[in-house]
Design goal:
Two copies of one chain form a homodimer. Chain A has about 400 residues and is α/β, with parallel strands linked by helices. The first copy, chain A, has three domains: about 70 residues, Winged helix-like DNA-binding domain superfamily/Winged helix DNA-binding domain (Arc Repressor Mutant, subunit A, Orthogonal Bundle); about 140 residues, ATPase, nucleotide binding domain (Nucleotidyltransferase, domain 5); about 170 residues, ATPase, nucleotide binding domain (Nucleotidyltransferase, domain 5), CATH 3.30.420.40. In chain A, about 40% of the residues lie in helices and about 20% in strands. Chain A has 14 helices and 15 strands. In chain A, the strands form four sheets. Chain A has a five-stranded mixed β-sheet with strand order 6-5-4-7-10, sandwiched between helices. In chain A, strands 13-12-11-14-15 form a five-stranded mixed β-sheet, covered by helices on one side. In chain A, strands 1-3-2 form a three-stranded antiparallel β-sheet. The radius of gyration of chain A is 23 Å and the shape is globular. At the A-B interface, helix 1, strand 12, helix 11 and helix 13 of A face helix 1, strand 12, helix 11 and helix 13 of B. Chains A, B: Belongs to the ROK (NagC/XylR) family. Chains A, B: It comes from Azospirillum doebereinerae. Chains A, B: InterPro entries: ATPase_NBD, ROK, ROK_cs, WH-like_DNA-bd_sf, WH_DNA-bd_sf. Chains A, B: This is ROK family protein.
Chain lengths: ~400, ~400
Amino acid sequence: MVDWQRLSDGERTLLERLFWSDGLSRGELAASTDFSKSKANLAIASLIGRELIEESGAQPSSGGRRPEMLRLSHRMGVLAGIDIGATSVDVALLAPDMTVLDHRSEAADVRAGPVAVFARVQALLREARERCGVGAAQVLGIGVGVPGPVAFDSGMLVNPPLLPGWESFSIRDCLAEEYAAPVFVDNDVNIMALGTHWRLHGRLQNFLVIKIGTGIGCGIICHGAIYRGMDGAAGDVGHICVDPHGPPCHCGNAGCVEAMAAGPAIARMAEQAARAGESPRLKELLDRNGQLTPVDLGNASRAGDAAASAIVQQAGGQIGRMLAAVVNFFNPSHIFIGGGVTQIGPLFLASIRQSVYQRSLALSTRHLDIRYVPQIENAGVIGTGVMAVQETMLARAARL
Amino acid sequence: MVDWQRLSDGERTLLERLFWSDGLSRGELAASTDFSKSKANLAIASLIGRELIEESGAQPSSGGRRPEMLRLSHRMGVLAGIDIGATSVDVALLAPDMTVLDHRSEAADVRAGPVAVFARVQALLREARERCGVGAAQVLGIGVGVPGPVAFDSGMLVNPPLLPGWESFSIRDCLAEEYAAPVFVDNDVNIMALGTHWRLHGRLQNFLVIKIGTGIGCGIICHGAIYRGMDGAAGDVGHICVDPHGPPCHCGNAGCVEAMAAGPAIARMAEQAARAGESPRLKELLDRNGQLTPVDLGNASRAGDAAASAIVQQAGGQIGRMLAAVVNFFNPSHIFIGGGVTQIGPLFLASIRQSVYQRSLALSTRHLDIRYVPQIENAGVIGTGVMAVQETMLARAARL
């Protein structure tokens, strides 16, 4: 096991630059720090000697010499990434540079409870290790994403609405039976934000990732790092009130954006419109399938159904009201919107944008870019891998 | 002039620890870093030799030896702190450890325009330097607080509602005529947040300072540092909508918290209650003075006036609605509330608290502490001094 505590601040900076980069030559890595060239080269040589970084092979260059690119060494060990969705589990092994070595996804029902789900996760992880020839001791860190609120320090779920029975289950203790590696647990939208941050090479310092599905959550990157707040509850934007006279929410308050514009609210509005005879197209779909989804609504809207488009615009407008409050407070550079409800399509995004620009101050939206989240292959497990790397080898002692 | 670029990361860490501390002995300073003791002692000796830190004299200790305390050296030079309020200017000279060397405050009217105000500021600064025997070249950095939105990078005001004529005025260029030192400009609530952060020795990593006066603004400390957002607009919470069916706001939208619960809205509600005969006490005050203030309202409420108390509770409730949205998003550990409207008294604070706790999620308020901002002597100029120190000697190269 590598002792990350023994890394100097300078060595950690070099590992950090390399991790967030798209690959750097020795010269580029040395130049990316404020060390002198000779000091940087000495430190790089030392990190290579200790098998913390390695050459990944020559890269094509524009005509001149072909510099050898450096990466975090695959010899250090692996990270395990576990992404638990409401209806699926993904288990992967990743190299420290986030190369996916093995990745399996299968259907699962979180309502079966944590013991059953984690028995399966453990088996999948064991199989992955066998395929890769990796022992349990070579696992450097484990990242776990779950679809519910997490107290990050303890790794425990807190009042998870979609995960009854998970609150008293310690994912850490469960995995500690087989792995000495530290285990980090976070909610799915923070994982999505970390994965996005890494894919963008850490270039954006202050941005948000919003996930709109059964609920609405937000991952926050602030000063270049994930921001979890005092209790791990930061980003719980689904219960921001957008209309004090609005409908009741399961949280006990009225007019929460989640009660007005998340997946179930959108489906309910579509079904009401169908039953009220406002949309023959939605009526036909409802009669055929017994229910309507945001995708049905998006299809109807794109086909020119006025009632469907009105619902899409209303829901987008409510999301935009919530985001306008967040933009006035946080002034982010980008908002990336993801989650199942984005399948509604471009009118939903346009409605969100219109509402945000109308209700935020001009200075806050001067450079604001609102778009759907970039599609990233293996996004969930990469996000958990990024978390595991950040919390182990890249973790610095608290500054004060 | 000290060349801060030449400081190593380690030296900067030592200066940083010292700046945020309440004074540290050599041993304490060495122990506060993760350097080896010998490396720390060498670096401390070098910083003393270069007159960047110095001994401040023996401090009383609990019986044993009396260690010499270290501080940032007064020989380095001074910081200038300029705090411009709507009706006053404060000008101070501070040592690098935030000792106030000279401080004058006088009435001023920002509506007279920036040229007139800064002619006076320049004169006050010159007089202060003469009293302290400090030349213009010994000024290391200048911090300026203004009561309006600032684009921090350019130091220019942007659409300042209370400061017509200031938008095209460059405070930097004006001060550059006499001073080579860098000039940093920020809004008053960020300055209040920085001053509070320093007085609390940087111990709180994630908290908010809300200022409720003519407008409503918020200073954000995130990951231990002031957070200004993409355009310097972060914390502009006055235009968060708390009721889409609410009254129109000068920003063009409806139901902004500033239009419903800032000083002018509170005074208006009090005057309406007085005219409607709901409060003989307020009626009498209105007849006598021609207007009502939040202080009048607070006095009436404390004297048992039901109509006054209802207005206080309503305004506090609206502030709380806005803060509940912010708490759900940001999950801070503390919210400190300041500004003239806090003179209303404890019922206002209680109403804010009740509204926040009712409308925020339980996990977000588990450790949340909401209170009036701690009273700090020379708060404004110390906040500008903290900004100047942070942006000069403690500024680090961007990490990525």
